[in-house]
Amino acid sequence: MDSVKRKRVLVYRIGSMGDTIIALPGFHKAVEAFPDAELILLANRPPSSKAAAAQTVLGEGYFFHQVINYPSFTRNPLVLLRLIRQLRVLKIDAMVNLTTTRIRKTIRSTKLGVLRDKLFFRAAGIKQFYGFPETTEDLVLTYDNETGKQEWEALRIARRLESLGPIDLTLDKYWDLHYTQQERVIAADVLKTLDPNRPVFAACAGTKRQPNDWEEYNWLALFKALKDDLPGWQLIMLGAEDERERAQKLLDCWNGDGVNLCGKTSPRVSGAALKHAKLFIGHDSGPMHLSAAGGTPCVAIYSARNLPGQWFPRGDFNKLIYHRVECAGCLLEECIAQQKKCILSITVDEVRKAIAEVIVEQKIDNLGFSAKTEI
User: Fold this and answer.
1) Which Pfam families does this entry report, sorted A to Z (predicted)?
2) Is 92 exposed, middle or buried (0-12, 13-18, 19+ CB in 10 A)?
3) Would you list the DSSP string of 282-325?
4) What is the dihedral of CA 342, 344, 347, 352, to 10 degrees?
5) Mean pLDDT lowest for which of 45-54, 102-111, 184-193, 260-269?
6) Per-residue model confidence as pLDDT tens digits over 214-253
7) What is the pTM of this model?
């Protein structure tokens, strides 16, 4: 008797850490909808060494069984042809599309872009599709006049996947990264110098993009002030290797009472370490999304590079500081003319106030992390 062929499902998402985490409910829905299938992750290779590849965030074994990477932003026909051939060999049965819809100048041009992508995957032999934009709502960025925010990216993805079943974005299970026991042990080990009977907060003062940088002088002023606001608290600094020097300056400002993990831990070990923190402070960044996904309240300092809403983190337990200016939504990689007036108009006192509000509203206590429940 011939063995039954295991169904193969391609799950497609591009971007780095924050992009992967904001799509986490979609990855969970793919696992739920195809429990017995072989899940194949298709993702781009990050264009920057600072950016975390999707597979390093998701880990192996739960969300996917194998991964295919291709160069970011490639239009090389030979590269694309090789990718088509690679996908055809795998004989993929279905595809779950979690990618952000590229919104163009007109709905018609956006539709043509979506059609082009779908035809590419049809050429790879795939016949069953989920998550491709279909409605007008999917093809534009919805703006709420009452809140002043764009539609949240996680909500947009969930709506596109309705044919696979509902996704309740308020449920913790859809944000669970399923850290392994080994990852939890490694996280505990890198934090072993901390006093388990005193509280911990985490911070990331680095960023991939110049417009999103609140600048070192602001961070130093904040940490100097926080020593009076958070007496006895310990600090975990997170980030990439090239952010280590700034992180060390902040740790020194904190009298060295903590650990500098920049460049030392993988995204998933960093996420497991964040489970020990009662609070996260940082830029709009991958570690911020990692923290929020795990349920740790965030105070996040935003530039207005993107319009508010679409790329906000999970949860209503965060304080997001965003100053909307006339050039909001510029999408600049470097801000020279306006001298980053959006993010640099945010004051140290504003951030201190947001931290104090989160501590009160979320009823964060001064107990040590040893008192927390098992992660």
Assistant:
1) Glyco_transf_9
2) buried
3) EESSHHHHHHHHTT--EEEEE-SSSPSSTTPPS-SS-EEEE---
4) 90
5) 45-54
6) 999 999 999 999 999 999 999 999 999 999 999 999 999 9
7) 0.94
